[in-house]
Automatic annotation (TrEMBL):
SUPFAM superfamilies: DTD-like (SSF69500). Its EC number is 3.1.1.96. Signal peptide: none annotated. This is D-aminoacyl-tRNA deacylase. Gene3D superfamilies: D-tyrosyl-tRNA(Tyr) deacylase. Residues 139-172, 206-226 are annotated as: Disordered. Its main location: cytoplasm. It is found in: Cytoplasm. It comes from Zymoseptoria tritici (strain ST99CH_3D7). Residues 163-172 have a biased composition (Polar residues). Coiled coil: none annotated. Keywords: Cytoplasm, Hydrolase, RNA-binding, tRNA-binding.
Amino acid sequence: MKTVIQRVKSASVTVDGQLISTIGKGLLVFAAIGKDDTKKEAESMAAKVLKVKLWDDEQGGRWKHNVQDIAGEVLCVSQFTLLASTKKGNKPDFHKAAPPLKGKELYDTFITQVRKLYLEDRVKDGVFQAMMDVGIVNDGPVSTSPPDSPSSPILLPLDPSTFSSTSSDNTLPITDPPLSMFSETPCVGLDFTCVDEVVTIEIETNPPEMKNPSGFPPEDGETAKGHVTKTFEYPASLLE
């Protein structure tokens, strides 16, 4: 899922000459649903939109307040063209965008979650698939685009030797495994999320029954069998 967030003094949506929605100070959010997106990505992006800090505080501190802190409003507008690609020419290609039915379902999930996490009467909407006239008074201007939500885990072979040892700063570097290890090998699902500038990396394993499939020392002398999950957290700045 991809969004573009604009800090605005006011914004509005008009369709066929009829005013649909209008807001004052707050956020205008253009949102596009990708073909591989799920409910998880839509809900995660909803939380991110409300947490992004685009306003100064009362003491003049820069980028200290989010839209909830200032009691602002939010106008969400569906815009699948955010996923356009022009890699193979000048004509936009929209193959990364979700088909209309899936797009509407997940867009509705997204805006419903925004309303659930904030105040329903402060979150407005456009008209899905309509030709909209969007009026914007951008404050700044200030615009940002949060990283696209990851849509699926990356698969790696389950072999402790593919992971380098934990470093002194508690990060867990991952080395590239040889391609030969991908055949007939149990796999590890690698997923990550970033909330409040902390990255959480989750390594999920589902190997056949064996002694200690995770490669980590068993606790209390027990052997680990079956489904194993290991989670690590460290500051997002370490990925820069």
